[in-house]
Amino acid sequence: MTYAMLNAEQILQFGSDDDSVALAPVGTELPTSLTNVNAAFKEVGWLNEDGMGFTPSDSVDKRKGHQGHRVYRTVMTDSSTDFKFTALQSNYQTLALQWNVKEVKTADGVTTARLSNARDVDAFAIVIRAYANGHSYLWACSRFEVGERDEMTLSATDDTAYAITGTFAADVVFITDDPAYKQESGS
After folding, report:
1. In this predicted model, what pLDDT tens digit does every residue of 13-58 receive, in sequence order?
2. pLDDT value of residue 1
3. Distance between CA 16 and CA 98 in Å, rounded?
4. Which of 120, 86, 83 is nearest to 101 (CA)?
5. Helix (H), strand (E) at residue 98
6. pLDDT < 70 regions, the chain
7. β strands within the chain, DSSP E
8. Measured between alpha carbons, how far is 83 from 97 in angstroms, rounded to an integer?
9. What is the torsion angle, in degrees rounded to the nearest 10, for the CA atoms of residue 51, residue 14, residue 7 and residue 33?
10. 27 touches 141 (CB < 8 A)
């Protein structure tokens, strides 16, 4: 790499006040721009300082020939992308992410919920927004499936948090105004 190719503006550090994760029912129209997000998407609120993470999960099968036991072909046998975030606010939305809420009633200012002791895979449409270096970044998916939930702790020394890991079960749309993501002509 030559020094001329180094560009510190392309090193991104997120964590703006406006970074967010928003969920909506499956079938909700996804955004087609950075500013027009359907009102059905509801933000989960404060996120843990560790941020959000995209995790690819790929498995390959290396086919080998008899001669020299050399790999002659690599075949992708499994490929998916997970997304993880930790919501900090405790409300009905985060309760329903952590638990399978079977029934909820509110009377005289008191809410009673019946929570299943087992969970299902829940599906949502998702919009993730983040901001860095004066640019906006948006990822959206029509089907985000939540199956894994981490421990929810009630503690005097740690905040109660809802660590959610889900899998994108449809293509992800990425929208940004960052010129570094423009495809170079001839590429």
Report:
1. 888 999 999 999 999 999 999 999 999 999 999 999 988 999 988 8
2. 58
3. 26
4. 120
5. helix 92-98
6. 1, 186-187
7. 20-24, 42-43, 53-64, 71-87, 100-107, 110-116, 122-132, 135-149, 162-168, 172-176
8. 14
9. 110
10. no
